[in-house]
Amino acid sequence: MAIKKKSxxxxxxxxxxxxxxxxxxxxxxxxFGENIYCKSGQEKMYTTVATGSSVDDIAENLDLVFNVKHxxxxxxxxxxxxxxxHIYPGLYExxxxxxxxxxxxxxxxxxxxxxRLSITNARHYEEVLELASxxxxxxxxxxxxxxxxxxxxxxxxxxxxxTICLFLPDTYEFYWNTSARQFLEKMAKEYNNYWxxxxxSKAKSIGLTxxxxxxxxxxxxxxxxxxxxxPRIAGVYMNRLNGTAxxxxxxxxxxxxxxLNDFEIKRIRKGHIERxxxxxxxxxxxxxxxxxxxxIPSKAAIEAVLNYERSNFYYFCAQPNYSGYSNFASTFxxxxxxxxxxxxxxxxxxxx
Length: 352
Hints:
The chain is mostly helical. The protein has three domains: about 30-110, Endolytic murein transglycosylase (Dna Ligase, domain 1, 2-Layer Sandwich), CATH 3.30.1490.480; about 115-195, no CATH class; about 195-350, no CATH class. It has helices spanning about 1-30, 55-65, 70-80, 100-110, 125-135, 140-145, 150-155, 180-195, 195-205, 210-225, 230-240, 255-260, 270-275, 300-305, 330-350, and strands at about 35-40, 45-50, 65-70, 90-95, 100, 115-120, 170-175, 315-320, 325-330. A hairpin with a 7-residue loop joins strand 8 (about 315-320) and strand 9 (about 325-330). Helix 11 (about 230-240) packs across helix 14. The mean pLDDT is about 90.
């Protein structure tokens, strides 16, 4: 009888060991084995951890973005490593075939990827805010609310009309979880880095503030795509600002398009100028610079204004061809001849 009991005990112990090995093996598999796969078959993919997320939120998001072979493995490792108290919002890069243990360690480490945001020549600052809200955690409504907040914008040195000056064309890196305030404050920092003492001094020497330089540069950008011509066009406008030939009026056609919010106009006519009279952006009606830029100016145009070409030109007109260059004139009589040739060419090419 004693021998039988001993045999039964060994049998039970054997089963327990076997079960333990099976359970241990399974747990090791779901915790340390390949578990998280990219749905697209790529070598890596990204997922976001929103501000205020819980472990459940992260796990549910993983299930949406990836093929998770053993969902319980992630939650188990998260519990063991106390992920709940070490969650860092942001964008994370996960490798194809990552284990639950590797994923939890990544989230717990806070080793976040950055987002690259490229700002180009938008016409309105709202376009930049929309882009930022698509790339970052910052919400569009929060960004708009801050740019509408006069006290906040005053603290950055901008008003409603020149808010677009805050955004210089370039590619910037952000953490995905950047807030609306952090985004705008970083843009202000980048603005001040660009507008260093040397550039501010140059602006002052030509009688302009940095924001007025950017306003004029935005017009120059809309007049030509050729960087080598921009200093000369900037010089024409500086002559108009400071001279008497046009009564201080820039008479810049791009400002009429902006005032009418119609950028498909090929030829500015008297009717367009008349319709735009009530707009502060009509440089045919009002002397001096408009209230703010008509687009985000390129850095080439900004430098062109700061280093504008000194000349006696007061007028310019597009050449009657597709080169994109202009003919310049010192007198209105010569300018009128150039304009007639250009108008004839437009008509011959079928432009209304």
